[in-house]
Design brief:
Rossmann fold; 347 residues; 7 helices; alpha/beta
Length: 347
């Protein structure tokens, strides 16, 4: 990792800190570990050299059975991160009843996890709180929709779900009913020949119904009070009869955008696999271009900024001894209001 990177963990009580410590991994891009709800969670994290304050951060969410490492490799967002000065984080879901990793798209545990992880990373890097974004593939796309629908802190400014469905929260019998609390820009990418998520909607046994892609697109366009902007078809560069129809809606007053890439004959895959493939577009680059123009003309989302305007009264080590922090040492900043920020300085 780069010089001076800090990974913080806010905990409410010193006692919990001393007895429930997370394991911290060191290495280029990770894995790193963060303790949430007394469970050690894995994530990968990439930050360019000399990343300025008020830079964007993108959360990239893997599909069912995947990991932060696998989605980092297949999407190659690290390349775009270095080229465009934004941070990128790849969390890993927990293993579910299926024996595979799966996101909690029915409750709030993973929403809270990503929120607290973002608070921790923000405490060091001071990202632009109006430019926190999420994208994901398949199950990760479902989680992106879930973040947009059910976030309670207005953390996410825009999402870009690829190859996933948006669940019908009202009619599927879940214990919670969610609705967005703020305008949120949405970029949807789906293939019409996707054999995992039917473009026209469907039903997942044991989970519920998910909307057609066109219905999800209309929902977000209506919610954001967007009107038609443009429609065109990308060139079929490789002559494989997979052609992408682009439809864009926007709200000229708020700057909100809702885009759809309808990949006719497209399968259940990330378009393209990293930047060296031969599809008509590279999804990672298109998604970043979408995120990059969000937040320029919008008002503040009124986030609560962690650890700002607080006075540190003590810095202690794992034994509770007051110290001066040094490289590769776990230490704890104790604030006057009783909150504690756990950090590791990596050289």
């Amino acid at each position: 990792m780069e010089r001076g990177q800090l990974f913080g963990l806010k905990m409410n009580r010193i006692l919990l800190i001393l007895f429930c410590l997370p394991m911290i991994g060191f290495g280029q891009n990770g894995p790193f570990y963060f303790t949430h709800n007394n469970i050690q969670r894995e994530f990968y994290f990439h930050v360019p050299n000399n990343l300025p304050a008020n830079s964007p951060i993108v959360y990239v969410l893997h599909g069912w059975g995947g990991s932060g490492s696998s989605i980092m490799t297949s999407t190659a967002f690290n390349i775009l991160s270095d080229q465009n000065n934004f941070a990128v984080c790849y969390p890993t879901a927990l293993i579910g009843n299926s024996g595979m990793t799966e996101w909690d798209v029915e409750g709030f545990s993973d929403i809270d996890f990503i929120k607290e992880l973002n608070d921790s990373l923000y405490s060091e890097f001071q990202f632009d709180l109006n430019k926190v974004f999420a994208t994901g593939f398949s199950y990760g796309a479902e989680m992106s929709y879930h973040l947009a629908n059910c976030q309670t802190t207005n953390m996410i400014a825009a999402i870009a779900p690829l190859g996933g469905g948006m669940w019908d929260f009202i009619n599927n019998g879940w214990p919670i009913i969610c609705s967005p609390s703020i305008n949120i820009s949405v970029f949807i990418l789906n293939g019409t020949s996707d054999n995992e998520f039917n473009y026209n909607g469907g039903y997942y046994p044991g989970v519920g119904y998910y909307l057609s892609v066109d219905s999800a697109f209309s929902f977000w366009a209506d919610y954001n009070s967007c009107s038609f902007s443009t429609n065109y078809t990308l060139l079929d560069i490789n002559n494989d009869n997979v052609f992408t129809e682009v439809t864009k809606y926007n709200n000229t007053n708020t700057g909100d955008q809702v885009w759809l890439y309808k990949v006719n004959n497209g399968l259940h895959e990330w378009f393209d696999i990293a930047p060296w493939g031969n599809d008509d577009f590279w999804a990672s680059e298109e998604i970043w271009n979408f995120f990059n123009q969000i937040g320029e003309n919008t008002t503040s989302l009124d986030h609560q900024e962690p650890f700002l305007d607080k006075n540190i009264i003590r810095i202690i080590n794992i034994l509770g001894q007051e110290i001066q922090p040094f490289t590769n040492q776990v230490f704890f900043e104790i604030y006057e209001d009783g909150t504690v920020n756990k950090k590791v300085m990596i050289k």
